[in-house]
Design a protein that fits this description.
Elements (H helix, E strand, L loop, with lengths): L5 E6 L10 H9 L2 E7 L6 H9 L6 E7 L5 H20 L4 E5 L8 H12 L4 E5 L4 H8 L11 E5 L4 H8 L4 E5 L5 H10 L6 E5 L7 E3 L14 E6 L3
Parallel strand pairs: 1-4, 1-5, 2-3, 2-4, 6-7
Antiparallel strand pairs: 7-10, 8-9, 8-10
Helix pairs in contact: 3-4, 6-7
The protein binds S-adenosylmethionine.
Length: 238
């Protein structure tokens, strides 16, 4: 019987190909198959476009895995199951499969949902993770601002869901990293103003990309439509 391949989750960093690790490049080069998440809009996967700037993919076998941009849990689960089945079929042929993901594979990434599903379809396979530079590290570096010093606490919270949790986070740590801010930016700016934290908040969009944008006067963002690749870092002690 063929020995099953290894399923790799490979973080490719926040966008600048120079922030890919040597290990990410090595694993991508040696994997038999590259698995790339693709949004339903049909545009090329962002993770793949980063990889292409750093690695010559030559005749590499690439499987594009469509994931809908939806909160419909059943549709999401079905897309993950069908992605896991495709990956598992490759592993069962004895090929290693590298699933590339923006930033790090274990923070707000589809990869963590795929791990147990792939293991379920291919129980004999091994899972390995290549960590990547996260978007919040790249955003802090772009400012540059410390994320934490000495005994300070950091909270990372996706701001797209429950605003009440964001309100709680603002009083629970010295640094608050608000991810996925694009859809709720007006409400978040109101919350920050209410908490007296607007002057201690920094907006970063597309950190490390040529289009990188840093904003310190957050009121100017109200009424706008920030990019999906945006976050706000709040430093209460700044
Ligand atoms: C689904 S999460 C992906 C997180 C990723 N796995 C990581 O390790 O950073 C997407 C969110 O990450 C943030 N993000 C990703 N890339 C970014 C960048 N280059 N600059 C600023 N924020 C970014 C945004 O808040 C975006 O809404």
């Amino acid at each position: 019987m063929t020995e099953p391949g290894v399923f790799y989750g490979v973080g490719v960093g926040p966008g600048d190909p120079e922030l890919m690790t040597l290990k990410a490049v090595k694993v991508i080069k040696s994997a038999g198959v590259l698995a790339v998440p693709k949004s339903e809009g049909g545009e090329e996967s962002l993770a793949l476009s980063i990889v292409k700037k750093a690695v010559d993919l030559g005749g590499k076998q690439i499987i594009a895995l469509p994931f809908p941009m939806t909160r419909d849990q059943e549709a999401l689960m079905e897309s993950r199951r069908s992605a896991a089945r495709l990956i598992s079929a490759k592993l069962d042929e004895g090929l290693d499969a590298a699933f590339v993901t923006l930033g790090d594979p274990l923070i707000y990434s589809t990869f963590s949902y795929l791990m147990p599903l792939v293991k379920g379809y291919s129980p004999g396979s091994e899972i390995r993770v290549v960590p990547g530079v996260t978007s919040f590290s790249a955003s802090a570096a772009a400012l540059p601002a410390a994320l934490a010093e000495t005994a300070e606490r950091v909270i990372i919270i996706p701001a797209a869901y429950e605003l009440e949790k964001v309100r709680e986070a603002l009083v629970s740590a010295e640094t608050i990293v608000l991810m996925k801010v694009n859809r709720a930016v007006d409400a978040i700016i109101d919350l920050l103003a209410e908490a007296g934290l607007l002057e201690r908040s920094f907006f970063v969009s597309r950190a490390g990309w040529p289009e990188q944008k840093l904003v310190t006067e957050l009121r100017g963002l109200k009424g706008g439509k920030p990019d999906y690749f945006s976050m706000i870092i709040v430093r209460r002690n700044a």
